[in-house]
């Protein structure tokens, strides 16, 4: 028998294999949320749910799902939902009912309030068009799913938009998701700018309900549901993870003599949450933006702002208009629309809370549980430590260049920590800033190379190892975001905004006044090199900043990259570094929380907006007992007594920024605004804080905060799950809760003996 294969068979087999491989790859891309970093295309999506029978009822709300605690109703004409607590009968509505209509004569606002979804549209380059189910002809088709419904919405007329919304009731969670693949813009030159999902869910009219809304500003704040009497023209609007520097030109910073900032910037939103609590009805929810958070703002608006309703919601930004210069001199500009929209599912999870859990303490407990269950945070060593950070080396101008200004050498750091141990301060952590060759602002840092003015490599390495043996941890500081144009080439590796102009961060410094952002890929490679090098030399500790609290869109070689691209690159980079080193992070965004051993610079106050009624330690309540959090520097707090009490209340550990040399040596450096650093001035305060807060930590003993409340007398009362109760009095008079009396500007700890 002739077993020789025909020559034509081989290419046929190869072709068949290639076809099969292409099909498999296509399936992986469709179902696996594949990311193409070069094109900037991200799906970040889950499949559209399986559909069942069509929902036919159109004459009123129809029940579409039920859990042990809640019923979910749906009204198709307004694309509205209603949540009912089965035990109490209390409800949350997502659109304003006709009987609660305040008679507003503005047609646009009336349509807005009675639509479960509101879109802002761009036509040409004008981003001013409102699209909702009342003012725009809309076809809605709705099908049952296993836990709720899936609705396909088609907006007609001038818009030609399509999208689908999956609404499900999963136990005590209402999950609302717009799959990325369902979003379609079919008319040339007409685009979706923003999507607001259920912007009136849980709304209240004026002061009809006792309660509040949770605002993710600073550590946390509340806006009460009382009648604001039209005192405010705006509410809270914060882009999650801060302003997009790739889209928005920064406003000028107010300064004195071109160097000293006179206005403290507002806090960034680092947690993708908001909340509504109806205290009388014992019903509340915590809204968690689960996907699309990288381009989503939290809107919390009190009554009197445009309409007399309190409301809070997530507003997703799919596409925006930016300013495009016409020439290099920026003498002329035109508006331009982003080339591509956000590619991600848009998902909000509403964790429903009732009875004794229907308050901000219940929201904090629910968020902690959610973060742990979903793996978005990991339990860390929460042992008490006082944080003592040091400034090593700075630079000042000298002749044709710069010269070193040594503020704290490695040996001086060792001497200070040794003295503090002798005074009873033990188990400290320290971030060593300005350790690198060239000083604090010689960035980026890509390898271990200590400045000679503080002792060089051998001294810094010996310091880290010696302190580790004494029970202290020294972290080397790394700003992985910035590049100093005066010290490093900025030709190829700096970020360009979406309009193709190089982004500049002008600091008005004495020596260096202009910094740039590194391209995310370069930040990633630099961080990898540095973390590997630190491990190789026996220093496995890094304090990471810059990329931990910044997120931007950018352009490169004619291509557009979104905040999603940047977020993915940063997360991969920090995850890899965490695999090498022990990482602590400076005010990290939520998607990096699970990689950090500790959170640095936790704000203890809000941005002090007029419409905020009360500050609460919401994030501290979430993290306490799970991840240690450290305050902003005590040195720079104007009211140190109140700041200390806030640390007691929130369970946050103290932070000090110290130098061995007098601060006056910094007058001609970029750190000239750091006016109070000398160790001798803070030694006694460090010891005092450590003694008091370490004693409290010993009684708390790793427990979580389960309840935070303000008593009728004005006393702040914090309860831990091991029975410890801490009462704090911020007033000038003694206060009592009926069980304990607390002196003015003082605190009392009960339990935990």
Structure description:
It is a single chain. The chain is an alpha+beta fold. Among the domains are: 9-36; 62-374, Beta-galactosidase, Chain A, domain 5, CATH 2.70.98. It has 10 helices and 49 strands. The strands form 12 sheets. Strands 9, 10, 11, 12, 13, 16, 17, 21, 22, 27 and 41 form an 11-stranded antiparallel β-sheet that branches. The protein has an 8-stranded parallel barrel with strand order 28-31-32-36-39-40-42-43, surrounded by 4 helices. A hairpin with a 3-residue loop joins strand 19 and strand 20 (260-261). The longest helix is centred in the N-terminal third of the chain and has 23 residues, at 9-31. Mean pLDDT is 91; it is low at 1-43 and 251-264.
First CA to last CA: what distance? 93 Å
CATH class of the domain at 62-374: Mainly Beta
Runs with pLDDT <50, length 5+? 1-43, 251-264
Silhouette:
globular
CATH architecture of the domain at 62-374: Distorted Sandwich
Helix content: 10-25%
Count of DSSP H/I helices: 10
Assign the CATH topology of the domain at 62-374: Beta-galactosidase, Chain A, domain 5
């Amino acid at each position: 028998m002739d077993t020789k294969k025909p020559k034509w068979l081989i290419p046929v087999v190869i072709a068949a294999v290639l076809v099969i491989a292409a099909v498999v790859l296509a399936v992986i891309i469709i179902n696996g949320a594949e990311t193409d970093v070069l094109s900037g295309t991200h799906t970040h999506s889950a499949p559209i749910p399986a559909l069942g029978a069509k929902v036919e009822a159109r004459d009123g709300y129809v029940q579409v799902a039920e859990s042990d605690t809640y019923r979910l109703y749906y009204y198709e004409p307004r694309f509205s939902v209603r949540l009912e607590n089965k035990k109490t009968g209390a409800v949350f509505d997502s659109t304003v009912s006709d009987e609660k209509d305040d008679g507003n004569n503005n047609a646009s606002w009336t349509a807005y309030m009675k639509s479960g979804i509101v879109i802002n549209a761009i036509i040409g380059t004008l981003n001013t068009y409102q699209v909702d189910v009342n003012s725009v002809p809309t076809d809605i088709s709705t099908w049952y799913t296993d836990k709720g419904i899936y609705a396909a919405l088609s907006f007609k007329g001038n818009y030609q938009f399509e999208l689908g919304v999956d609404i499900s009731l999963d136990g005590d969670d209402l999950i609302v998701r717009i799959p990325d693949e369902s979003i379609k813009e079919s008319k040339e030159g007409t685009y979706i700018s923003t999507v607001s999902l259920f912007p009136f869910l849980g709304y209240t009219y004026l002061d009809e309900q006792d309660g509040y809304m949770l605002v993710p500003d600073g550590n946390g704040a509340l806006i009460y549901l009382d009648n604001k009497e039209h005192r405010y023209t705006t509410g809270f609007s914060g882009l999650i993870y801060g302003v997009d520097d790739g889209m928005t030109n920064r406003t000028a910073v107010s300064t004195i003599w071109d160097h000293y900032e006179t206005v403290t910037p507002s806090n960034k939103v680092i947690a993708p949450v908001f909340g509504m609590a109806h205290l009388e009805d014992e019903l509340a929810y915590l809204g968690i933006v689960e996907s699309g958070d990288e381009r989503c703002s939290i809107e919390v608006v009190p009554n009197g702002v445009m309409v007399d309703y309190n409301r809070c919601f997530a507003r997703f930004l799919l596409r925006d208009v930016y300013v495009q210069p016409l020439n290099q001199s920026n003498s002329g500009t035109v508006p331009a629309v982003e080339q591509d929209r956000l590619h991600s599912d848009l998902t909000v999870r509403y964790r429903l809370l009732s009875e004794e859990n229907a308050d901000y303490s219940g929201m904090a407990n629910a968020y902690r549980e959610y973060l742990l269950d979903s793996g978005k945070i990991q339990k860390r060593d929460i042992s008490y430590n006082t944080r003592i950070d040091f400034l090593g080396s700075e630079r000042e101008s000298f002749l044709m260049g710069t010269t070193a200004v040594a503020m704290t050498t490695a040996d001086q750091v060792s001497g200070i920590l040794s003295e503090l141990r002798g005074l009873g301060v033990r188990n400290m952590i320290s971030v060593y800033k300005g350790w690198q060759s060239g000083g604090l602002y010689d960035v980026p840092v890509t390898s271990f190379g200590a400045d000679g003015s503080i002792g060089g490599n051998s001294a810094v390495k010996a310091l880290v190892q010696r302190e580790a043996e004494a029970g202290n941890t020294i972290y080397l500081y790394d700003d992985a975001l910035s590049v100093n144009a005066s010290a490093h080439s900025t030709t190829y590796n700096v970020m360009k905004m979406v309009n193709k102009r190089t982004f500049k961060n002008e600091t008005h410094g004495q020596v260096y006044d202009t910094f740039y952002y590194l391209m995310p890929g370069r930040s990633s490679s630099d961080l990898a090199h540095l973390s590997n090098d630190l491990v190789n030399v026996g220093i496995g500790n890094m304090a990471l900043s810059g990329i931990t609290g910044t997120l931007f869109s950018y352009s490169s070689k004619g291509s557009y990259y979104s905040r999603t691209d940047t977020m993915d690159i940063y997360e991969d980079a920090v995850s890899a570094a965490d695999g090498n080193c022990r990482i602590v992070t400076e005010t990290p965004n939520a998607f990096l929380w699970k990689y950090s051993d500790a959170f640095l610079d936790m704000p203890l106050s809000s941005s002090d907006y007029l419409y905020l009624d009360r500050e609460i330690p919401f994030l501290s309540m979430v993290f306490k007992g799970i991840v240690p959090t450290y305050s902003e520097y005590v040195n720079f707090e104007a009211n140190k007594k109140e700041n200390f009490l806030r640390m007691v209340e929130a369970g946050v550990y103290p932070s000090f920024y110290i130098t061995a040399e007098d601060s006056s040596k910094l007058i001609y450096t970029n750190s000239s605004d750091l006016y109070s650093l000398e160790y001798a001035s803070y030694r006694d305060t460090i010891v005092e804080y450590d003694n008091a807060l370490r004693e409290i930590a010993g009684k708390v003993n790793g427990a979580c905060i389960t309840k935070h409340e303000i008593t009728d007398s004005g006393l702040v009362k914090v309860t831990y799950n091991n029975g410890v109760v801490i009462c704090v009095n911020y007033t000038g008079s003694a206060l009592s809760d009926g069980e304990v009396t607390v002196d003015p500007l003082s605190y009392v700890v009960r339990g935990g003996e």
